[in-house]
Specification:
The chain is of the alpha/beta class and 328 residues long. It contains 10 helices and 8 strands. The longest helix is centred in the C-terminal third of the chain and has 28 residues.
Length: 328
């Protein structure tokens, strides 16, 4: 339910930065988060995800204090952070169209708890305005010392999933796939089929996979991690990592299949993937045959399945190298 849309700013530039802020029970943080946004941000879109505290009232008060365009959307119930972000994305897709055809627009995702360093917003949107990339992610691992304050369990979880994200998304240059601080262009957002993006814990990974399928280029900007003193993660990584790994597997398979016809490298990667699957099936069959005392060579088939699987990864990486310069 959209509550209000105030136009407090006068645009004097053809570049617009929209700060999209999902908020749930952030009555003590939302005001400072919004008021501390740098002047380069012209539009603030806040999605109140069914907060049970006074977050909504604090947001409404901002209408009279904020010298920026303020858009407020409210969920009647708590649907989760991913759903809140997707509600904001849908609003932008539906409302930033013909009237903004002469503008370059970048959307930056900011958490409502004030734990994202908004001083880096200009650095994160500049590659978008300069047409270097469609998607920019903050990374806590691009620069030494930036991850020092990161809880150990989060560090372990991010590192454990990094390689799997490379394979699943085709973005072989990312170092911090679980980081929710990112920016994207309006054109990239319009390309996205939001119905294919996960609205739960898999949101960040799902975004990477979908942008990978579209062939969007990602650049990372080094940004230090900000965490409260003694903060503990509520995420159960012993559940999160296996579930995410399985979803990444299916995401990779979907991307390999849906992008097979884009170029020669993609076709060869797809064919290598199919052959590897066939050998996996033969390996499984050989186990069954051995159980019923039929001599069948399991080692050969399993080895060939691994070889062709690795070949699929290598061809996918070659395709990435041919399209983008990872050093950017």
């Amino acid at each position: 339910m959209e509550l209000f849309h105030s136009n407090a700013n006068i645009r004097d530039s053809h570049k617009i930065i929209i700060a999209l802020i999902p908020a749930y029970n952030e009555q003590y943080n939302i005001k400072s988060t919004v008021l501390n946004l740098p002047n380069v941000v012209e539009t603030v879109l806040i999605v109140n995800d069914g907060s049970s505290d006074n977050t909504g009232q604090e947001i409404i008060k901002l209408e009279h204090e904020l010298k920026k365009e303020l858009i407020y959307i409210e969920h009647n119930a708590n649907l989760g952070k991913g759903s809140a972000i997707l509600s904001g994305f849908k609003w932008i897709q539906n409302n930033f169209k013909e009237n903004y055809s002469d503008f370059d627009i970048a959307i930056v995702l900011i958490d409502g708890d004030g734990q994202m360093n908004t001083n880096y917003i200009l650095q994160m949107t500049t590659p978008i305005f300069e047409k270097q990339a469609e998607f920019v992610k903050a990374s806590r691992f691009r620069q030494n010392g930036h991850s020092n304050n990161m809880p150990k369990i989060r560090y372990f979880g991010s590192q454990a999933l990094k390689v799997l994200n490379w394979i699943a998304s085709g973005h072989w240059n990312i170092t911090d796939p679980q980081n929710g601080y990112f920016a994207l262009s309006l054109e990239a957002l319009k390309d996205l089929d939001l119905s294919k993006i996960d609205n739960g814990y898999f949101f960040e990974n799902s975004m990477l996979i979908e942008t990978g399928k579209l062939g969007h280029h990602i650049i990372e900007v080094p940004v230090p991690a900000i965490y409260g003193v003694g903060e503990k993660s509520n995420l159960r990584y012993w559940q999160f990592i296996p579930k995410t790994s399985m979803n990444l597997l299916f995401g990779w398979m979907d991307r390999i299949v849906t992008t097979a016809n884009k170029n020669l490298s993609r076709k060869l990667s797809f064919y290598a993937f199919i052959v590897s699957i066939l050998f996996i099936i033969l390996s499984i069959s050989s186990i069954i045959f051995q159980i019923i005392n039929i001599n069948y060579e399991i080692t050969t088939f399993f080895s060939l399945s691994i070889i062709f699987l690795l070949l699929s990864f290598i061809l996918d990486f070659i395709d990435y190298k041919n399209r983008f310069d990872p050093s950017k």
